[in-house]
Design goal:
8 strands, about 10% strand, eight-stranded mixed sheet, about 55% helix, alpha/beta, single chain
Length: about 475
Amino acid sequence: MFDTLAQRFSRLFAGLGRAGKLTESNIDDGVREVRTALLEADVSLEVVKGFVERVKAKAVGATTLEGVAPADQFVKIVHDELVALLGGEETRIRWNDRGPTVFMMVGLQGTGKTTTCGKLALHLRKKEGKKPLLVAADVKRPAAIEQLKVVGRQVDVPVYAEEGGRPEKICARGVAKAIELGRDVVILDTAGRLHIDAELMDELEDVKAKTNPHEIWLVVDAQVGQDAVQSAREFDRRLAISGVILSKTDGDARAGAALSVREVTGRPIRYVGTGEKLEQLEAFVPKRVAGRILGMGDVVSLVEKAQEVVDQDEARETAEKMFRGSWGLTDFQAQIRQVQQMSSKAGGIGKLAKLVPGLAQIPDEAFQQADDSQFKRWVAAVDSMTPQERVKPELLDGQRRARVARGSGISLASVNELLKSFKLMRKQIQEMKSQGLLGKMLGKKLDKQKMKQLDELRRRGVDLRDYFPGS
């Protein structure tokens, strides 16, 4: 969603990096580029105007700083203002400690509201340890109730539904059912329309009056640009929404909705839907998003995705193997599978890579070769090797490599590429070892002298497992 904007900012900062210091002239040039970048991203004119005025005022005040690169000064100013524009500090959910917390989900038809309800239910169940109940309150759209039931089964969350009836009464009975079942979260999937009309808003006001929801979240299609901002303004006027969820941010949207909705309504963006899969819903954290836009990456999100797929005991065992020098192709294969899982959760290897600082502005095309099919080829190649070859890859001469290629149904070039990547990884491990980083990973305070002693013991054939109980 932010790719175009990130690439534009990257070019801007690169130009400032060639300047010796911040001057009124290059500040004006930078501000002009910021204005153009935001307008091209479909950010509303009133938002852009206020943003660039604040950036320029702070940048002019920073011209006296010594010893700091001009581009770094400007990036810091833009970053801070961008964080403020996106909402500042992350907003916490108001959990009800005297019964179920009620979420009322509203939005226009076609925004992905029902699917988002399922995504939210799954997120709250898995990440927050909650026990949600979904309530089907859209009684007018054909198949809306059945759609929510299907989504509920997919995320393993029960659905309360009635055939016909008034939406406000269905929602009230849904909340009562949640109390009866001991569910601590209720998600109301209300009706939408193709446009805002009096009938829709009256119906939603009735639901609000009957259920007293703790949160009213508007689901906005990020791809509709300024229309999303206008609808958000109207929903907030009638219902006093408490937050926004941006759906369909994996498309070619230009980020205008994300950067405008918060400023225009004053309501925080809570989550963003990053793909079609039900697990592809991420909390919206302004500092992280600002970092992605400005090419700083998002290390926290990267670590969180890693924690979802990496077992801590396995990670420690892998680190110990690295230290002992017994890390082989089987371990490399296991790490490839973990990257596959992380890539799937992120929506592709390109999106995963863009969480890494410095890679945010690289176009998606650059990651096309490093796709899931390549990982599958590498996994198949390791499966076609003998146990001895996996432990000692140096045994893989030309004849053996050709056999592996035939056995796995891939090209010899792919086998060579795998072994080249493995060799590079092993070299990096040795560098980490020489710097003492592996010792820190193992929770050991190992200085260089101690590591030399352990290396000497290993060369003499001493079993180092005594140094690492449980390995």
